[in-house]
Amino acid sequence: MLQGLVTLATDPWLLLWLAAAVPIGMAFGAIPGLGGKIALISVMPFLAGFDLVAGCVFLISLHAVVHTGAAVPTILLGIPGTGPSTAVVLDGHSMARRGEATRAMTAAAAASAIGGVIGAVVLAAVAPFALGLMRLVSYPEIFLLTVFGLIFSATLSGQAMVKGLVAGCLGLTLAFVGIESVFGVQRLTYGAVFLWDGMDLVVAVLALYAIPEMMDLARTRKPIAAGAGYGIEAEPRQIRTGLIDILRHRWLVFRTSMIGAIVGIIPGLGGDVAAWLCYGHAVQTSRTPERFGHGAVEGVIGPEAANNSKEGGALIPTLFLGIPGSSGMAILLVALVPLGVSPGPHLALQFGDIVWVMVWALVLSNILAAVMLVLMASRLNALSRVDPVLIIPFVYLLALASAYISTAEWQFLALMAVLSLVGYALMRQRWPRAPFVIGLILGPAAEDALIKSLSLWGPGFLFRPVSILLIVFLLATVVQLARRLSSSSAHVPRGHDEAR
Amino acid sequence: MRRADTVLALALLLGFGVAILDVSGYRWQVALGPALAAGIGALLAAAQVIRTTMAPGSPEDARPVYGRHDLAPLAWFLAAVAGVLLLGFTIGGGLYAFLNVLANGGGRRRLLRAALAAAAAVLLFALVFETLLGVRLYRGVLLPG
């Protein structure tokens, strides 16, 4: 394992490729709609001349830091850079509107770095037992985890629980739009061919968050951080506070990193689920859960740590078993082919040394990305003080571009306009929007796992030992969280906690 | 505020109803997920309608919530969508950025700011997306190719 570090540290070319990959990966994360998959696809044509180790280091470093870069538009503009960043929008952008974008970005960067390192440690520690661990989790457990996420989203809504549940059901219903995967039946498409592939998450999230936030900014005509009381001189203090936040919530960072890495190991769950589960964990373990959605730094730290630690976890099935844990990992495997790597269960045995170099590249790239983001945070925060007239048209256009890049169908631009009206109405009426996104993300995974569980075990799937344990644990946590939220919301002014 | 809440809940109730009608003809494996989601959503939306209708009124409810200040941002966003759909990202986006900054910006230099915004939009889409990233963006229905 240490040989991997020696190989990486003693070869200046490898370090150079790592250093080059980090800003490129961050840039792909920072441009909404691009993300890790497009980053990998975009660099594939240039990999032909790379030697095996350099190519692997470049690819893994590029892919690992995408979420760190995505924190920038997510926090500053309320536009999630990648899918999993949607969990950061709620509190990250609220912090920016309060003038604390630098603090949020610093906390996000540090949490991402620690998450990335812990993900790599988990990768190194768990790899020998990966197959056994994966056998413990099957469709019933995946179904229960997704159900937990859905129920949890409603409890997030505080006093507006009914509204939250309605929004969650709307997200779930829209998640079923498209061709059903097992029987190939069109559902809720009403003859529209462009809906065959389903509702695009990027389109929905931009329409629900980014566009309504900008419309609100246009309505008030004030900069994002207007009236925050923080000037340029407060930037170093914000960086310090962001780093102190990480120290203060060190156990949250550790726990969410572990959860993220474990979710990453389970094929099919992905980064969106990891981020929202960890957001939920942050709310659940907070002494003041009513602050979430209004700029709680833990709401940034939890999902950010999970976003990056998940990458380490997802590499376990990808590299050691030849099973890509997500579509991003599948593309990573494909990108390794021109370098002479044949994906499969023997990948780690064949290229053991290179795997450890990749693990160390994962660690170093995460640290480098965090340092870069902290150094740039103060300058980037200037965006939150710019006249909104100069920002709003670009956010609209970038959001539309993101939607088009993500779907390649112009009809989604019109659909985005319609959904933006719904998003604006939900925002102005203070209906929770987070349950909508959670429903949209978890819906397909929940349905797939439910149908497969019923087909394989019948209704008895709920009585598998691991399922029973999960049900008891999930019920206990949901009841506990609902009680704490209802008691704490009694101290919050009416309507205050309904705007998530 | 309360009336708007009722209208929103009713609109969502209608949407759930349409979804339930659509999936009612499918085999159970296909209909189970959407029927559950839309069914529960419809029940809860109906409960929300009843809740807001039955709740006692407050002075806050009598005040109009939406007005011109809501319509203008909505109209500008729809203009962005229309501009991109008609003329594509590079030309439509540039034109939209110019008009938006010109109309909403203040001060003597607003024409200059509008021109710079338009140039920035054109450069962003033509140079960064199309040339550097190799992403082919939508060209619009009015322009060939």
What's this entry about, in short?
The complex is a heterodimer of chains A (500) and B (145). Chain A is mainly α and 500 residues long.
Q: Tell me the span between the first and last alpha carbons of chain A.
A: 45 Å
Could you name the ranges of chain B where pLDDT drops below 50 across 5 or more consecutive residues?
none
The helix content of chain B, as a percent range, equals over 70%
Outline type of chain B: flat
Q: Classify the helix fraction of chain A into a percent range.
A: over 70%
Task: Give the DSSP E fraction of chain B (strand runs of 2 or more residues).
Answer: under 5%
- Terminal CA distance of chain B reads 47 Å
Q: How many DSSP helices of chain B?
A: 5
How many whole angstroms does the radius of gyration of chain A measure? 22 Å
The chain-level mean pLDDT of chain B equals 86
Major β-sheet annotation of chain B: none
Beta-strand content bin of chain A? under 5%
Order of helices and strands of chain B: HHHHH
- Summarize the helix and strand pattern of chain A as letters: HHHHHHHHHHEEHHHHHHHHHHHH
How would you portray this structure in words?
The complex is a heterodimer of chains A (500) and B (145). Chain A has 500 residues and is mostly helical. Helices cover 72% and strands 1% of the residues of chain A. Chain A is built from 22 helices and two strands. Chain A has helices spanning 2-10, 12-30, 35-43, 52-64, 66-77, 86-97, 101-126, 130-136, 139-155, 161-175, 201-220, 235-248, 250-265, 270-285, 298-320, 327-336, 347-350, 352-381, 388-407, 411-428, 434-457, 465-489, and strands at residues 178-179, 186-187. In chain A, strands 1-2 form a two-stranded antiparallel ribbon. In chain A, strand 1 and strand 2 form a beta hairpin. In chain A, helix 4 packs antiparallel against helix 16, helix 9 (139-155) packs antiparallel against helix 21 (434-457) and helix 9 runs parallel beside helix 22. Residues 492-500 of chain A have low confidence and may be disordered. Chain B is mainly α and 145 residues long. Helices cover 78% and strands 0% of the residues of chain B. Chain B has helices at 2-23, 28-54, 59-62, 68-104, 110-132. In chain B, helix 4 crosses helix 5. The longest helix of chain B has 37 residues, at 68-104. The model of chain B has no long low-confidence stretch (mean pLDDT 86). At the A-B interface, helix 10, helix 11, helix 19, helix 20 and helix 21 of A face helix 1, helix 2, helix 4 and helix 5 of B.
